[in-house]
From TrEMBL, chain A:
<keyword id="KW-0813">Transport</keyword>
<feature type="transmembrane region" description="Helical">
    <location>
        <begin position="246"/>
        <end position="267"/>
    </location>
</feature>
<keyword id="KW-0812">Transmembrane</keyword>
<comment type="function">
    <text>Component of the ubiquinol-cytochrome c reductase complex (complex III or cytochrome b-c1 complex), which is a respiratory chain that generates an electrochemical potential coupled to ATP synthesis.</text>
</comment>
<feature type="transmembrane region" description="Helical">
    <location>
        <begin position="90"/>
        <end position="115"/>
    </location>
</feature>
<dbReference type="InterPro" id="IPR016174">
    <property type="entry name" value="Di-haem_cyt_TM"/>
</dbReference>
<feature type="transmembrane region" description="Helical">
    <location>
        <begin position="154"/>
        <end position="181"/>
    </location>
</feature>
<dbReference type="InterPro" id="IPR036150">
    <property type="entry name" value="Cyt_b/b6_C_sf"/>
</dbReference>
<feature type="transmembrane region" description="Helical">
    <location>
        <begin position="363"/>
        <end position="386"/>
    </location>
</feature>
<keyword id="KW-0408">Iron</keyword>
<feature type="transmembrane region" description="Helical">
    <location>
        <begin position="193"/>
        <end position="214"/>
    </location>
</feature>
<feature type="transmembrane region" description="Helical">
    <location>
        <begin position="127"/>
        <end position="148"/>
    </location>
</feature>
<feature type="domain" description="Cytochrome b/b6 C-terminal region profile">
    <location>
        <begin position="227"/>
        <end position="397"/>
    </location>
</feature>
<keyword id="KW-1133">Transmembrane helix</keyword>
<keyword id="KW-0249">Electron transport</keyword>
<comment type="subunit">
    <text>The main subunits of complex b-c1 are: cytochrome b, cytochrome c1 and the Rieske protein.</text>
</comment>
<dbReference type="Pfam" id="PF00032">
    <property type="entry name" value="Cytochrom_B_C"/>
</dbReference>
């Protein structure tokens, strides 16, 4: 069942093409027969959800780009024209604007799933690192997309973020001038951001293809974190996982539609409905919610360059994760101590996000500093030590053993995780 | 960069997601009853039409709404003839004609609302240096939305509280950030005479103009919510079918 064998195509055209360019064999192999561990839970659907979000973003973005004008004098008005005059333009824009948030929600859940079940460990290091690059590309794309409506937050957000590069000694200021295409955020900046905002999603798409290719070499991880030992441990991707992921995607779309139709501006900032004005600084410049933990780290360091390095370091440390975590056991289910620290890290990320939204002074600055220190402590000190000190629980012999026999020593460690009907 | 340390915004964490809900050090803005709030709420067209009357007779003497085409008002119940009559009440600059000169012509529904001043500098010059902001998106461009607009319009006080010295030409408002605002208290009891006979109290006027500004900021709001109800009902049914299919399929795995 799970072991791929050459499919027999009945359609003569398909057969003719496939014998010359075996794309149908490839699709059959990768998306039909591809063996998925039979015990994956719904957290494994967030990869598919993130993929769907990328498709939605590219599709709506393409149509929006046909109506948008990237010039400081008319960018704001052209967005309002989309909202008012273009057929269903309001729908396209709200789907796109809220889609960015949904994409980040899906990817953040996907990442924390990887952290919990040790999906970054051998042999999936490159798969994980490609994921870190996907996150970076998403951040750049989202940031530049937020600049395009040319509202107050667009302008001032762009000013703040591009200015970060001026922290680097010697080359800092020339880099900022080069990024701006001038001596302040202005029309050349908007123009190039639009070009890059159009380009980067396709870079993202390429990274996603590589990410998937790498995934299909090692196969998907699973809640037990042990390798599938044979067909009895897996199910073919289609129809079992397509239907399961499909259900998860639809539930996610309900959540998404709730924002698009009933609170389309909840995740945005009212100031971005005020046209950009270089002479008036908004009282409070805040990034979009998905940048807030990183923003907190940036502001926690009392030195500009240090803050910038810490912020980028917070992402770079993720790329080094496969080597920082010295434990050979993947899943948190069998790592009782790490499991607790995982949840502390998750809470730390939320606290950092909250502190990022608060004024960087008094108690919130202190909270951000403790949160930042803990974040790096977790990855740089705790993980390497824990792998050596912690005594993992015994691993089950195979995936199907606890699933089919229902119980044994694994179920005790698995604390009532729904194992599906399988 | 470091000046951003003053950035303040309270974020709500729901399900691990930071919503950009706003609070800040500003005064609490009381919530009003709006017919358009909630999932099934729709714009109160009669109120919005009264609000349009206030906009035309009061607000538009200083404020523009230059992103809004006059035909948008079809959404609050004006028919085509009424729209043409409303549009014809405005003079719009057009041209150049064959002689190369700009000229004025009566408006048509496709025109956007003409602005009271030719440019921002002229607006400032006529308003003691203050620029009356464009109202096209006002209901979406302020924290608190229409509740803030209502609070602002009813929040003027003739005498500022003790210890507050107003700058020349400024007015005291309870809800305006910083409390000093160039705009005077403009809504007076019976300041307008409503065509439909509704008593024009200050509260009624503030409610009506806020409803109108909400409408022009988001003319497709009713359509959006109605579509949303259908989309979500469809998705719920689809999710049910998907789940049933999934259960059936996976139950064969043993």
């Amino acid at each position: 069942m799970a072991q791929a064998h050459a499919p027999q195509f009945k359609n003569p055209v398909v057969k003719w093409i496939d014998s010359r360019l075996p794309i149908f064999t490839m699709l059959d192999h990768e998306y039909n027969q591809y063996p998925m561990p039979r015990n994956v839970n719904y957290l494994w659907a967030f990869g598919a959800i993130a993929g769907i979000m990328l498709v939605i973003m590219i599709a709506t973005g393409l149509v929006l780009a046909m109506q948008y004008a990237a010039h400081t004098t008319i960018a704001f008005d052209s967005v309002e024209r989309i909202m008012r005059d273009v057929n269903y333009g309001w729908l396209l824009r709200y789907v796109h604007a809220n889609g960015a948030s949904m994409f980040f929600i899906a990817v953040y859940i996907h990442m924390f799933r990887g952290l919990y079940y040790g999906s970054y460990k051998a042999p999936r290091e490159i798969l994980w690192i490609l994921g870190v690059f996907i996150l970076l590309a998403m951040m750049a794309t989202a940031f530049m997309g937020y600049v395009l409506p040319w509202g107050q937050m667009s302008f001032w957000g762009a000013t703040v973020i591009t200015n970060l590069f001026s922290a680097f000694p010697l080359v800092g200021d020339p880099i900022v001038t080069w990024l701006w295409g001038g001596f302040s955020v202005d029309n050349p900046t908007l123009n190039r951001f639009f070009a890059l905002h159009f380009l980067l999603p396709f870079v993202l798409l390429g990274l996603v293809v590589l990410h998937t290719a790498a995934l299909h070499v090692s196969g998907s991880n699973n809640p037990l974190g042990i390798d599938a030992k044979g067909p009895q441990d897996t199910v073919p991707f289609n129809p079992y996982v397509t239907v399961k992921d499909g259900f998860a995607v639809v539930v996610f779309l309900i959540f998404y539609a709730g924002f698009v139709f009933f609170a389309p501006n909840y995740l945005g900032h009212p100031d971005n409905y005020i046209p950009a004005n270089p002479l008036v600084t908004p009282a409070h410049i805040v990034p979009e919610w998905y940048f807030l933990p990183f923003y907190a780290i940036l502001r926690a360091i009392p030195d500009k360059l240090g803050g910038v390095l810490a912020m980028f370091g917070a992402i770079a440390v993720l790329a080094a994760l496969p080597w920082l975590d010295t434990s050979k056991v993947r899943s948190c289910k069998f790592r009782p101590i790490y499991r607790q620290f995982f949840w502390i890290l998750a809470i730390d990320a939320l606290v950092l996000g909250y502190a990022g939204a608060m004024p960087a002074e008094g108690v919130w600055l202190l909270v951000a500093r403790i949160g930042t220190a803990y974040y790096f402590f977790h990855f740089l000190i705790l993980l390497p030590l824990l792998g050596k000190l912690e005594r993992p629980l015994p691993l089950p012999a195979s995936i199907c053993e606890p699933v089919l026999k229902g119980g044994g020593r694994v179920a005790a460690g698995a604390h009532a995780k729904p194992m599906e009907k399988a | 960069m470091r000046s951003l340390k003053s950035a303040i915004l309270s974020a709500a964490f729901a399900l691990g997601l930071a919503g950009a809900a706003q609070a800040s050090e500003a005064v609490h803005i009381p919530k009003q009853e709006w017919s358009h709030s909630g999932v099934f709420g729709t714009i109160d067209k009669a109120s919005a039409q009264r609000g349009f009357q206030i906009f035309k007779e009061v607000c538009a003497t200083c404020h523009s709404a230059k992103l809004v085409p006059i035909r948008t008002l079809a959404g609050i119940g004006f028919n085509e003839d009424e729209l043409k009559a409303i549009a014809a009440g405005y003079e719009v600059q057009a041209g150049p004609n064959d002689a190369g000169e700009m000229f004025m012509r009566p408006g048509i529904p496709a025109d956007r609302f003409p602005s009271p001043f030719p440019n921002d500098n002229a607006a400032r010059a006529a308003n003691n240096g203050a620029l009356p902001p464009d109202l096209s998106l006002m209901a979406k461009a302020r924290v608190g939305g229409e509740d803030y607009l209502y609070a602002f319009l009813t929040g003027f006080e003739e005498n500022p509280p003790e210890g507050v010295t107003l700058m020349p030409g400024m007015n005291y408002n309870k809800y305006f950030p910083g409390h000093q605002v160039g705009m005077p208290n403009i809504l007076m009891p019976d300041g307008v005479t409503y065509a439909d006979g509704t008593p024009a109290t200050v509260q009624q006027q503030a409610h009506d103009i806020s409803t109108f500004l909400t409408f022009i900021a988001e003319p497709h709001m009713d359509a959006r919510k109605q579509m949303g109800v259908k989309v979500i009902l469809f998705l719920i049914v689809l999710a049910g079918l998907m789940y049933a299919t999934k259960r059936k399929l996976w139950s064969t795995l043993h």
